[in-house]
Write a structure and sequence with these properties.
The protein has 175 residues and is mainly alpha-helical. It has ten helices and two strands; from the N terminus they run H-H-H-H-H-H-H-H-H-E-E-H. It folds into two domains: 96 residues, Fumarate Reductase Iron-sulfur Protein, Chain B, domain 2 (Orthogonal Bundle); 61 residues, no CATH class. Strands 1-2 form a two-stranded antiparallel sheet. The structure holds iron/sulfur cluster (2 copies). One iron/sulfur cluster binds next to helix 3 and helix 5.
Length: 175
């Protein structure tokens, strides 16, 4: 019998209730997170701000105001490129990218606004061990290549323990 496709709910069955979100953020990011004084240095250097209107200082402020639900449902946290420039630029040694990663975890737990492409990558890694299955490619001269035609060995999928360990890790990270 084939393996049942995993849903996000399977991966994160111990998702926190909504009321615990802000408490968890404070617990995980500690007093550093509270010391943002909105100087905007993070936003002025943000890679995603130019194209996608992500404003890390705004994310920080919304969480401080307790507007975590609004952030998660807006889907804005998925526009972060995780370049860590905001963390490097912050005079208070606060990390908006860490906060954004945490908010993504919440979003993932609730299966809310998680981009399709991200889910595909997670699913592919669990099933095959790779972010994307081997594909046929076409050269500029319209020649088609596969691993086989290039004499490369067939890729072997992960052992069962790999998927189990990864699910455990993801659940722990998100929990
Ligand atoms: S750079 Fe740091 S202190 Fe300034 S707004 Fe961004 S997170 Fe807050
Ligand atoms: S990590 Fe995200 S929020 Fe921080 S500067 Fe890069 S794109 Fe912007």
């Amino acid at each position: 019998m084939g393996r049942r496709a995993l849903t996000l709910r399977d991966l994160t069955s111990e998702a926190a209730s909504e009321g615990e979100l802000r408490e968890r953020i404070v617990r995980e990011l500690g007093s550093e997170f509270q010391s943002c004084f909105r100087c905007l240095r993070c936003t002025s250097g943000c890679t995603s701000m130019k194209l996608l209107e992500l404003r890390p200082h705004f994310v920080m402020n919304m969480v401080k105001l307790g507007l975590v639900e609004e952030l998660i449902s807006s889907g804005i946290v998925w526009t972060c490129a995780l370049c860590l420039k905001c963390e490097e630029r912050c005079p208070q040694e606060v990390s908006p990218s860490e906060l954004i990663t945490l908010l993504r975890n919440f979003s993932f737990q609730r299966e809310e606004n998680v981009p399709e492409a991200y889910l595909k990558v997670v699913s592919s890694v669990l099933e095959t061990g790779f972010i994307q299955e081997p594909m046929e490619v076409v050269s500029r001269e319209f020649e088609e290549f596969t691993r086989e035609s290039l004499g490369l060995p067939r890729l072997v999928g992960p052992r069962e323990a790999f998927s189990e360990n990864l699910i455990e890790l993801m659940t722990r990270e998100a929990g």
